[in-house]
């Protein structure tokens, strides 16, 4: 499949922007000016002013002599790039590859995209109509090369869709500046009577190089397709992307859900075939008024389960404002990973982190409440219980040491032990009762002690003798005595609660 490029030129980019902000300017001749050595120069003029003879570069005083009622506004040249970037991002509805042309336009790689609009004619018509509705004057052309499309958009007359392999015929009648060569070279060509491309396109390359340098040959080769022209898109091209245009604008949540389900089905089918799963995805809705609505999801494990992914998106669909209607849906898998067979197992001896159902549960919780509400803990290199665990950096963090499972541990562990009053026979018998928060608990069952020493490199505090106890209500607690009975400073603490 040959490459097809679209170049869109905005001849009145900044004046159109001012007109969109202040509609009354649509019917008035106005110009934008910049200061220059104590005078005001015209940096841009709207179509009405240009038709009456006011051109860029004129002195404001001369322009007022031509149009006494001329409206004057201070120019903001810095907004051009910001405007083009915003328009380029909006144009990703037509193709994933959109670049900014420094001459006030956009470059679209339309290869393999035009059929979604019913062909190149309807594709180009839709682009021009949408920009017209947004308030922008545009010219656009389609060709096999960026150079030819650019030349036709800026200087071409007649058909703006150049058939494949017809670059030479399309360029013959155009002026030399249509090749985007330096102004000095263009002046030399005109002085020699070679103002049209047809006058020098057939000349020997060595003669052109000697007289005009390498640049003119490069631009010719790029326009004719003999040399590839490299441009950088405003957004990296996503390899896993699906798009779904709508014949009629969608304004209901049901319509949005149907579009999302279709895109997920197609994308997940591709991912499964390549044994991949997505980690992050974004769903974009392009509205007819130019706005783009977005919702994003993320998963703990790479997933190609369309049903699960739809449930994650479903939590956020209510955030989408369809406005006057959505005419294009786009789904991007921004981050993907290879799915190993182990990730599809129902259970593993090493725990449940690779359990698909558990991973999907984490995803739903994170989607509804945020990732901050999911926390995993891993064992740490400490003896004392409150120091023996630490928050994991991620749900999938590898364990550097195994959990100690030789003795039971409470389901709820207090971050800091709380002092309690205990009655216990001496020297090392289990406690008989204890008072916690004003309530007396009579102990009917007990086991222990389990001695836990402090780390030798810390030497902080006394050793602890832990007991597992159960009161008359069947509730179980984890108590410990710090120090020996013989120590006058020994104390009792509660440290946790069993289920």
Verbal overview:
This protein is 27% helix and 28% strand. The chain has 499 residues and is an alpha+beta fold. The chain has three domains: 1-28 and 69-237, Alpha-Beta Plaits, CATH 3.30.70.270; 241-366, DNA polymerase, Y-family, little finger domain (Dna Ligase, domain 1, 2-Layer Sandwich), CATH 3.30.1490; 412-497, no CATH class. The strands form five sheets. It has a six-stranded antiparallel barrel. α9 (205-212) crosses α10 (214-224) and α11 (253-273) runs antiparallel to α12 (306-314). The chain is elongated, with a radius of gyration of 36 Å.
Task: Provide a quick synopsis of the model.
This protein is α+β, with helices and mostly antiparallel strands and 499 residues long. The chain is 27% helix and 28% strand.
CATH domain class of the largest domain:
Alpha Beta
CATH architecture type of the largest domain: 2-Layer Sandwich
The strand line-up of the biggest sheet is: 14-15-16-17-18-19
Please identify which CATH superfamily of the largest domain we are dealing with.
Reverse transcriptase/Diguanylate cyclase domain
Strand count, sense and barrel status of the largest sheet are: 6 strands, antiparallel, barrel
Core attributes:
6-stranded antiparallel barrel; Dna Ligase, domain 1; 499 residues; 27% helix; 3 domains; 13 helices; Alpha-Beta Plaits; 28% strand; alpha+beta
């Amino acid at each position: 499949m040959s490459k097809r490029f679209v170049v869109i030129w905005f001849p009145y980019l900044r004046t159109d922007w001012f007109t969109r902000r202040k509609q009354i300017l649509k019917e008035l001749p106005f110009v934008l000016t910049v200061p220059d050595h104590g005078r005001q120069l015209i940096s841009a003029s709207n179509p009405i002013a240009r038709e009456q003879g006011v051109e860029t570069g004129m002195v404001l005083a001369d322009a007022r002599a031509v149009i006494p009622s001329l409206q004057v506004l201070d120019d903001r040249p810095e907004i051009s790039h910001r405007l083009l970037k915003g328009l380029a991002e909006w144009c990703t509805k037509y193709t994933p590859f959109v670049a900014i042309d420094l001459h006030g336009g956009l470059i679209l790689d339309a290869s393999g995209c035009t059929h979604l609009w019913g062909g190149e004619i309807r594709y180009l018509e839709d682009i021009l109509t949408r920009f017209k509705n947004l308030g922008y004057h545009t010219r656009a052309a389609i060709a096999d090369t960026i150079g030819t499309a650019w030349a036709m958009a800026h200087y071409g007359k007649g058909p703006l869709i150049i058939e494949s392999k017809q670059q030479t015929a399309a360029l013959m009648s155009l002026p030399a500046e249509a090749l985007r060569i330096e102004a000095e070279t263009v002046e030399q060509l005109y002085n020699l009577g070679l103002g049209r491309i047809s006058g020098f396109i057939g000349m020997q390359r060595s003669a052109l190089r000697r007289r005009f340098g390498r640049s003119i040959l490069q631009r010719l080769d790029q326009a004719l397709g003999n040399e590839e022209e490299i441009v950088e898109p405003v957004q990296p091209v996503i390899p896993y992307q699906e798009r779904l245009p709508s014949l009629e604008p969608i304004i209901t949540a049901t319509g949005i859900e149907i579009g999302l389900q279709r895109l997920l089905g197609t994308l997940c089918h591709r991912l499964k075939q390549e044994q991949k799963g997505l980690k992050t995805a974004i769903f974009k809705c392009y509205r007819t008024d130019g706005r783009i609505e977005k919702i994003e999801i993320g998963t703990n494990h790479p997933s190609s389960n369309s049903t699960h992914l739809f449930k994650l998106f479903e939590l956020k669909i209510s955030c989408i404002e369809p406005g006057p209607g959505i005419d294009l849906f786009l789904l991007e898998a921004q981050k993907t990973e290879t799915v190993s067979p182990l990730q599809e197992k129902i259970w593993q001896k090493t725990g449940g982190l690779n359990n698909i159902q558990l991973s999907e549960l984490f995803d739903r919780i994170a989607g509804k409440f945020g990732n901050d509400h999911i926390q995993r803990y891993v064992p740490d290199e400490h003896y004392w219980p409150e120091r023996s665990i630490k928050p994991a950096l991620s749900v999938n963090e590898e364990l550097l040491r195994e959990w100690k499972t030789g003795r039971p541990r409470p389901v709820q562990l207090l971050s800091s032990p709380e002092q309690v009053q205990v009655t216990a026979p001496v020297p090392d018998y289990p406690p008989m009762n204890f008072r916690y928060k004003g309530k007396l608990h009579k102990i009917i069952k007990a086991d222990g002690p389990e001695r836990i020493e402090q780390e030798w490199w810390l030497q902080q505090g006394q050793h602890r003798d832990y007991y597992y106890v159960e009161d008359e209500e069947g509730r179980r607690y984890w108590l410990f005595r710090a120090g020996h009975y013989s120590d006058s400073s020994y104390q009792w603490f509660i440290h946790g609660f069993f289920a």
